[in-house]
Write a structure and sequence with these properties.
CATH class: Alpha Beta
CATH topology: Rossmann fold
Strand order of the largest sheet: 3-2-1-4-5-6-7
Order of helices and strands: EHEHEHEHEHEEHEE
CATH superfamily: Formyl transferase, N-terminal domain
CATH architecture: 3-Layer(aba) Sandwich
Distance between the termini: 24 Å
Number of helices: 6
Bound molecules: 5-O-phosphono-beta-D-ribofuranosylamine
Helix content: 25-40%
Shape: globular
Structural class: alpha/beta
Length: 195
C-alpha cells in the first residue's frame, strides 16, 4: 500500500519494480489531494483512493477516514512515498511498525517538509536519502537505510532534489524488498532488517 501526494515518481519506481519475483505488490495507492500519483496508479491498474483533510471536520476525522480507507485493503506494509501529511494517532496505533517513509535528507538533519531547501540554505556539502520507520514524531522514526548524495556548488533546489530522488527511488525499492522478505526488528529507536 503506497501513500503519496505529489508527482509520484517514487511510486512509479515501485510500480516498475513490483513485478515478477519482487517480493511485494502494491495493493492500492492513497492520496490526500488530486495529484499525478493517483493518475500513475490508475494507469498501472492499481486501486486508488483520496482522503483529503479539507473534506473532513478536523484532523481526527481525517485520521479516522484514512485509517479505515487503508485498512480496507489489508496491507502488510504501508509506504509513505512523498505523502506530505503527518499521519495521525489512530493511523499509527493501527499500523505502527509497518509504515515506511522516505525522506530527502540524512536524518536527523533537516527533518520536515523543506529538507532540500534547508540543506541548501545551511550549506552542507553532503545530504542524502533516508528510509525509515514512521513513529509519532516528524521524521524521527528508526532508520532502515541511508545513502549520501553530494551537494554541488551550482545546485538549486530542483537539481539537488532530483539527484536525491534518483537515489531515493532505488533505495526505497531495495529496502522494501528486504523488509517484505525478512521483516524488521525494532526496539522503537533502532531498526535492523535481519540478514
Ligand atoms: C521525495 O523526495 C520524498 O522523499 C519527499 O517527496 C518527494 C516525492 O517525490 N517527501 P515524488 O512525488 O515521488 O516524485
Amino acid at each position: 500500500m503506497v501513500l503519496a501526494s505529489g508527482t509520484g515518481s517514487l511510486l512509479q519506481s515501485l510500480v516498475a519494480a513490483a513485478v515478477d519475483d519482487y517480493p511485494a505488490r502494491i495493493v492500492a495507492v492513497g492520496v490526500d489531494r488530486d495529484c499525478d500519483a493517483a493518475l500513475h496508479a490508475r494507469a498501472a491498474g492499481i486501486a486508488d483512493f483520496r482522503v483529503a483533510l479539507r473534506e473532513h471536520a478536523d484532523r481526527a476525522a481525517w485520521d479516522h477516514a484514512l485509517t479505515e480507507a487503508v485498512d480496507a485493503h489489508a496491507p502488510d506494509l504501508i509506504v509513505s512515498a512523498g505523502f506530505m501529511k503527518i499521519l495521525g494517532p489512530e493511523f499509527l496505533a493501527r499500523f505502527g511498525g509497518r509504515i515506511v517513509n522516505t525522506h530527502p535528507a540524512l536524518l536527523p538533519s533537516f527533518p520536515g517538509a523543506h529538507a532540500v531547501p534547508d540543506a541548501l540554505a545551511y550549506g552542507v556539502k553532503v545530504t542524502g536519502s533516508t528510509v525509515h520507520l514512521v513513529d509519532a514524531g516528524v521524521d524521527t522514526g528508526p532508520v532502515l537505510a541511508q545513502e549520501a548524495v553530494p551537494v554541488l556548488d551550482d545546485d538549486d533546489e530542483a537539481s539537488l532534489h532530483e539527484r536525491i530522488k534518483t537515489v531515493e527511488r532505488r533505495l526505497l525499492v531495495e529496502v522494501l524488498a528486504a523488509v517484505a522478505t525478512r521483516g524488521v526488528i525494532s526496539d522503537g529507536r533502532k531498526a535492523v532488517i535481519p540478514k
